């Protein structure tokens, strides 16, 4: 309907997150990868600390460690040094060079530098690409999807000249958006493969950030989709993108090698899951597996049980664009009032939403969501929720006040069930709390 | 370039203006660890809880860093708000000064803080904005101090940022106010940030010896108290070499004697309290301190007994940049824990000497960062536990090494006598947790002989 902004010069309690962090996250989903941030060391230390705090996992990332004089004179000397060191010491399969606002403002041309570096060193067999991600545009979501796009570009270039592509109709490439947890990606892979497809998720954080105990220390990523599977994905008969932001990488695959694609704006809630399963049923010709039929019944029954809790309740949600869109759809099904929806930046998906959305920060959530019963945002929102008296439900990134947040499922019937129960329980506890405090002691 | 920064480049001093300080090593591209100077400046100033802290730059510097420290407040919480000018493309092209000015006005109007700290970041430093002028103009206009903190990330390490923040305090804050008449003057605590509430334990201890805290620089501080820091009788530099320059400058400017001390371990705590009383030149106070420390040490000895039994002979690898390694070593030694490996990447020569005084010959020095290096030391020296910062926590978990978090993100206070007891408990809990045995034992089906040849 409309996208609004409140007029204020400063960002107060930002929810927007630098694009480069999204890039680092995307690369965690590739096996033996090293994201290399072309900037000063803080630009890699902060994302590393924040991602570590959210996923409770070691995070692979390095920096070209620019200092003031390097920026002014020759920033690419640092990049070359960093590349030399990373290549000789760790031998990654994948390197993603992430340009920052610093290299952007200084006008550093690292794209060409990377090209000649690859030519001179005769770099073959690995995947090295660069992506321009200054922090004064977009947010985590755009950084993530741009990185996937750049990755796909590089893959296509590497194998593109090898002539006719053979297509494997039983193989699907899944492009999961940045708002999906490792458990979400896992669930989507399972759903799709239950219809008899091979699935290659690109990237695949479900095997790298889901908390497995691989021993043996490595500064590279310790899980995710391996390079040969990535390249093999170019033979997929279909691309499924989840999240509006993943449409561009899907389209890139389509334009370059002709892979048809289907975009699901989200996979959260009854209707969205219905759509996904119906689609898979149609293209595979397989029946919907019994367990999903059961889960559907369970969900509907659960929603019936819970609808007393949701009646008359209102919610404020502040999330990244794709995520907000999904969550709003789910809230719709619960029949609660959506008091205010806030997101970090404007995307076509957001602009096309039927509801009013505000681009802003968590302070806007506090002001516009005043009086809401439930507050959904990342952990930075705890204080705001407290001040407005809303129950707090952590979601998005970063979440640090809850164990296992990265393993919670939001997609499919199972995810809708989990979220509905969580929200319902919060309402119940809140009600019990207010009853308690209304008892007068003499 | 302003004179304070110039001196930085001349002496190449890292965190200290002492001539013996070794030069700041250039971070190695592809192998650098740790935060930037902007991060360091924030660490030092964010614990001023009632002030507003505005980050001038694109969103990531503020967006990725706010609410990441374990520094606690006993009252106001404005410093926990994330304020950023959040520069966009067009701000970069047309200049961000207007937005900065408007942001300052907005924050002053809406939150009425006693002061606003404005942090430069790489981009705003690079585009050559005159932040100092904007701040000065704004301060005059709105009538509250607006303090520029010139510590963009790319000038160097976190330590340097600590120091640049100290410079900002010297230049703009300290000496600009006078204490309220009834204030009891005593000691400034410099470089104590109230991580996990350590400041409160320390203050309680000082108060029971009759020693007043004049200004907290900056753990759980209020802006006002720092303006009168120049009236203190003694400065104590707590576990932060980077702010030694601040103490030195205050000695020469205001004649306040200073000493370096720590509150990690009973011995260091006792020493620090004694130093305070001694430098205050107050016999009665010294006697009170003696009585207090004797009593506390005796009580602590009793309470520690069961833990000492369990901890004796245990081996630890200590890797910390945030707090002085040597003082933590003392604390561990008091518990009977042997330090078999210690990080020295951020230590000065003085620190290394102090470390050498406290550890045995077979202790390995780990001069450079990198998780693999730490883990190697743990394995080779057969250490039982790793004590390091949050960054390395999950690396240790993957390797199934018991771990204790010692840096700014931690939730446990280890300072003072109470803190030592807490440290002993944490070490014991960590070592005795059943998870280590469970994680090390394979699933039952993996114990069987493989059914086929693998
Ligand atoms: S290095 Fe510069 S741009 Fe990066 S986080 Fe630090 S201040 Fe910000």
Could you name the key traits of this structure?
heterodimer; A: 442 residues; alpha/beta; 6-stranded parallel sheet; 4-stranded parallel sheet; 17 helices; 47% helix; globular; B: 454 residues; 5-stranded parallel sheet; 20 helices; 13 strands; 46% helix; disordered N terminus; binds iron/sulfur cluster
Strands ordered across the widest β-sheet of chain A: 1-13-12-11-14-15
Global geometry of chain A: globular
Shape descriptor of chain B: globular
Number of strands of chain B: 13
Q: Considering DSSP H and I runs of 4 or more, what fraction of the residues of chain A is helical? A: 40-55%
Which radius of gyration of chain B do the C-alpha atoms yield?
Answer: 23 Å
Distance between the termini of chain A: 53 Å
β-strand percent of chain A reads: 15-25%
> What's the rounded overall pLDDT mean of chain A?
93
Report the β-strand fraction of chain B as a percent range. Answer: 5-15%
Structural class of chain B: alpha/beta
Give the topology:
The complex is a heterodimer of chains A (442) and B (454).
Chain A: E1 3-5, E2 11-12, H1 19-28, E3 33-38, H2 42-55, E4 62-63, H3 68-72, H4 75-90, E5 94-99, H5 101-105, H6 110-121, E6 127-132, H7 140-160, E7 168-176, H8 182-193, E8 198-201, H9 227-232, E9 236-242, H10 247-257, E10 261-264, H11 270-284, H12 290-310, E11 314-318, H13 321-334, E12 337-343, H14 348-351, E13 357-359, H15 362-368, E14 374-377, H16 382-388, E15 391-394, H17 412-438
Parallel strand pairs in A: 1-13, 3-4, 3-5, 5-6, 7-8, 7-9, 9-10, 11-12, 11-14, 12-13, 14-15
Chain B: H1 3-11, H2 37-45, E1 52-56, H3 59-63, E2 83-84, H4 89-94, H5 97-111, E3 116-120, H6 122-126, H7 131-142, E4 146-149, H8 158-172, E5 187-192, H9 198-208, E6 213-218, H10 223-227, E7 234-238, H11 244-254, E8 258-261, H12 266-280, H13 283-311, E9 315-319, H14 325-334, E10 338-343, H15 349-358, E11 364-366, H16 371-380, E12 385-388, H17 393-398, E13 403-405, H18 416-432, H19 435-440, H20 444-447
Parallel strand pairs in B: 1-2, 1-3, 3-4, 5-6, 5-7, 7-8, 9-10, 9-12, 10-11, 12-13
The complex binds iron/sulfur cluster.
């Amino acid at each position: 309907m409309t996208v609004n902004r409140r007029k204020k010069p400063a960002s107060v309690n930002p929810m927007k997150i630098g694009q480069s962090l999204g890039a680092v996250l995307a690369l965690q989903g590739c096996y033996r990868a090293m994201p290399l941030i072309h900037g000063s060391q803080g630009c890699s230390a902060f994302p590393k600390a924040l991602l570590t705090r959210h996923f409770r996992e070691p995070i692979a990332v390095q920096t070209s460690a620019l200092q003031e004089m390097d920026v002014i004179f020759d920033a690419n000397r640092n990049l070359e040094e960093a590349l030399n060191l990373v290549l000789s010491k760790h031998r990654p399969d994948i390197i993603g060079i992430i340009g920052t606002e610093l290299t952007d403002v200084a006008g550093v041309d690292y794209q060409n530098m990377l090209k000649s570096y690859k030519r001179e060193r005769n770099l073959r067999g690995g995947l090295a690409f660069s992506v321009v991600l200054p922090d004064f545009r977009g947010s985590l979501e755009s950084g993530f999807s741009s990185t996937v796009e750049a990755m796909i570009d590089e893959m296509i270039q590497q194998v593109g000249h090898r002539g006719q592509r053979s297509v494997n109709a039983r193989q699907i490439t899944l492009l999961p958006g940045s708002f999906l947890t490792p458990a979400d990606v896992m669930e989507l892979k399972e759903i799709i493969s239950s219809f008899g497809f091979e699935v290659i998720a690109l990237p695949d954080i479900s095997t790298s950030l889901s908390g497995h105990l691989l021993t043996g220390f490595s500064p590279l990523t310790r899980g995710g989709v391996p390079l040969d599977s990535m390249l093999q994905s170019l033979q997929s008969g279909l691309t499924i993108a989840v999240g509006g932001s993943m449409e561009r990488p899907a389209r890139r695959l389509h334009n370059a090698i002709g892979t048809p694609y289907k975009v699901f704006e989200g996979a959260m809630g009854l209707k969205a899951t219905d759509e996904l399963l119906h689609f898979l049923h149609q293209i595979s010709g397989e029946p919907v597996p019994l367990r999903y039929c059961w889960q559907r019944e369970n969900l509907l029954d659960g929603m019936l049980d819970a609808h007393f809790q949701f009646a008359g309740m209102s919610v404020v949600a502040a999330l990244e664009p794709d995520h907000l869109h999904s969550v709003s759809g789910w809230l719709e099904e619960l029949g609660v009032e959506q008091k205010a929806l806030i997101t970090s930046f404007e995307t076509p998906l957001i602009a096309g939403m039927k509801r009013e959305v505000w681009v802003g920060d968590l302070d806007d959530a506090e002001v516009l969501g005043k009086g809401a019963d439930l507050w959904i945002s990342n952990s930075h929102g705890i204080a705001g929720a407290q001040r407005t008296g809303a129950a707090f439900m952590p979601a998005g990134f970063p979440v640090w006040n809850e164990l296992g947040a990265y393993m919670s499922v939001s997609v499919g019937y199972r995810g809708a069930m989990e979220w509905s129960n969580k929200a319902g329980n919060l309402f119940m506890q809140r009600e019990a709390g207010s009853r308690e405090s209304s008892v007068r002691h003499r | 370039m302003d004179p304070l920064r110039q001196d930085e480049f001349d002496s190449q001093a890292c965190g200290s203006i002492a001539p013996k300080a070794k030069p700041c090593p250039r971070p190695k591209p592809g192998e650098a660890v740790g935060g930037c100077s902007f991060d360091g400046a924030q660490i030092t100033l964010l614990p001023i809880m009632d002030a507003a802290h505005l980050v001038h730059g694109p969103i990531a510097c503020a967006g990725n860093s706010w609410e990441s420290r374990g520094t606690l407040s006993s009252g106001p919480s404005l410093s926990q708000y994330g304020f950023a000018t959040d520069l966009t493309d067009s701000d970069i092209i047309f200049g961000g000064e207007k937005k900065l000015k408007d942001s300052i006005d907005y924050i002053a109007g809406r939150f009425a803080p006693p002061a606003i700290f404005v942090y430069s970041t790489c981009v705003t430093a690079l585009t050559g904005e005159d932040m100092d002028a904007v701040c000065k103009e704004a301060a005059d206009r709105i009538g509250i101090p607006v303090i520029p903190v010139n510590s963009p990330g790319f000038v160097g390490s976190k330590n340097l940022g600590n120091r640049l923040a100290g410079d900002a305090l010297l230049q703009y804050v300290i000496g600009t106010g006078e204490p309220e008449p009834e204030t009891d003057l005593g000691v400034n605590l410099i470089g104590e940030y109230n991580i996990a509430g350590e400041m409160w334990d320390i203050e309680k201890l000082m108060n029971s010896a009759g020693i007043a805290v004049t200004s907290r620089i900056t753990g759980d501080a209020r802006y006002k108290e720092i303006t009168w820091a120049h009236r203190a009788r003694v400065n104590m530099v707590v576990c932060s070499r980077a702010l030694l320059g601040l103490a030195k400058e205050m000695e020469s400017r205001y004649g306040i004697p200073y000493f370096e001390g720590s509150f990690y371990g009973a011995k260091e705590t006792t020493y620090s309290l004694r130093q305070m009383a001694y430098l205050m030149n107050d016999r009665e106070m010294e006697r009170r301190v003696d009585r207090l420390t004797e009593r506390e040490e005796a009580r602590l000895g009793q309470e520690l007994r069961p833990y000492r039994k369990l901890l004796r002979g245990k081996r630890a690898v200590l890797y910390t940049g945030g707090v002085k390694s040597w003082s933590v070593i003392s604390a561990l030694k008091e518990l009977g824990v042997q330090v078999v490996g210690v990080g020295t990447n951020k230590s000065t020569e003085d620190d290394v000497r102090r470390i050498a005084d406290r550890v045995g010959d077979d202790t390995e020095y780990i001069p450079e960062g990198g998780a693999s290096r730490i883990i190697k030391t743990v394995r080779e020296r057969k250490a039982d536990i790793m004590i390091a910062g949050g960054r390395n926590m999950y690396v240790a978990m993957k390797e199934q090494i018991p771990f204790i978090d010692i840096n700014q993100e931690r939730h446990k206070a280890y300072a003072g006598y109470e803190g030592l007891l807490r440290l002993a408990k944490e070490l014991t809990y960590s070592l005795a947790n059943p998870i280590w045995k469970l994680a090390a034992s394979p699933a039952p089906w993996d114990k069987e002989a493989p059914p086929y040849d693998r």
